[in-house]
Structure formats: structure tokens, C-alpha cells
Specification:
mainly alpha, transmembrane helix, Undecaprenyl-diphosphatase, 180 residues, PAP2/HPO, membrane, transmembrane, single chain
């Protein structure tokens, strides 16, 4: 099933120059733009302390998720779908393992953190962007759909860990916000 859905999403790649250009732009610039979205929230005029705490939580979940992915990769060294002839690649080759998707982990960690902090509108925007970025990785041929599922799971795990240990209005929280 994973291979079938992956092939179907990737089958659209190369059929329309404009669609390819848009999806390639999303896959290359989507995650940095989502990070920029979080950074810009720092200067939010409404509920500034809470939003700043949420921004830090996003950053921590983002980094923790990517770190946890590196541990998973030590045990699961999955080849990319284009290496096995499942997809055709329309961007440059990747050098690391396919599972879990770093893009899905990083972007969904941001979305889940915003949701966990009660910033629902921002979380919905981030969730839609994260989904589009993640699917773009299958479209361009670098991931299986199950790699995205693994990335979403890692994002949930990293967000849950950050929520458990990084609490708002603690001495540590106030110190971090004062430094930044």
C-alpha cells in the first residue's frame, strides 16, 4: 500500500512544468519559511509572553525531533524510493536515509507545538503548510508516504517531551525569554 500511494503521488511529477516548479519550491523553501513564520511570532502584540514561550517550544521540538531522527537512522537505514526504482527524482539526490522524514518531523513539530500551546489559528496554518511540505517530498521522489508517517510520529514524540519538560512561566522559561 505504501509503495502504491507513493508511486501515485510521484506519478504527477514531470507532467506539468508549472506544478513541478511550485512543488520543488515548496520542498526547498517551505521548512525555512515555516521557521521564519515562527520567528516572526516573537514580536506578536497579543499575549506576548505566551507566544514567546510557544516560539521557544517550537524550536525545542523542532531540534529534538531532528536529533531523535538521527538516532532512528542508526537503526533503520532505509533506502530512498528513487534508489529502488519506486519513484523518479526531480530534484538533487539526498545522502541520508529515507526514514523518518526530517521535513515532516521538523514542520509537524512546529505545528504540534503551536497546537499544544493553544495557538489554534497559527497551528492550523502550520499544519496545512507542514502537510503540503511533507507531501511535496513524496511528489519530488525523495520519500515514501510511510517516511512521512514516521516523521509525524517523531514530531508528536518530540512535542510531547518538550511539553512535559519545558513549562511556561518557570524560572528557566523566564531566563530563556530574557536572553532572546
Amino acid at each position: 500500500m505504501d509503495e502504491i500511494v507513493t508511486r501515485w503521488i510521484n506519478s504527477w511529477a514531470g507532467s506539468n512544468y508549472i506544478l513541478d516548479a511550485v512543488v520543488i519550491a515548496v520542498t526547498q523553501f517551505g521548512a525555512p519559511l515555516l521557521v521564519l513564520f515562527v520567528v516572526l511570532q516573537w514580536w506578536s502584540g497579543k499575549d506576548r509572553d505566551h507566544v514567546r514561550h510557544a516560539c521557544i517550544a517550537c524550536g525545542l521540538a523542532f531540534l529534538l525531533g531532528l536529533g531523535l531522527n538521527q538516532i532512528v537512522i542508526l537503526f533503520i537505514d532505509r533506502l530512498r524510493p528513487y534508489e529502488l526504482g519506486v519513484t523518479h527524482l526531480i530534484i538533487g539526490r539526498s545522502t541520508d536515509a529515507s526514514f523518518p522524514s526530517d521535513h515532516a518531523t521538523a514542520t509537524f513539530a512546529i505545528a504540534f507545538s503551536l497546537l499544544a500551546e493553544g495557538l489554534r489559528r497559527r497551528a492550523i496554518v502550520a499544519m496545512m503548510v507542514a502537510l503540503f511540505i511533507s507531501l511535496s517530498r513524496v511528489y519530488v521522489g525523495t520519500h515514501y508516504v510511510s517516511d512521512l508517517v514516521g516523521g509525524v510520529f517523531m514530531a508528536l514524540l518530540s512535542t510531547a517531551l518538550v511539553q512535559a519538560f519545558y513549562r511556561e512561566d518557570t524560572k528557566f522559561d523566564r531566563m530563556v525569554k530574557s536572553i532572546l
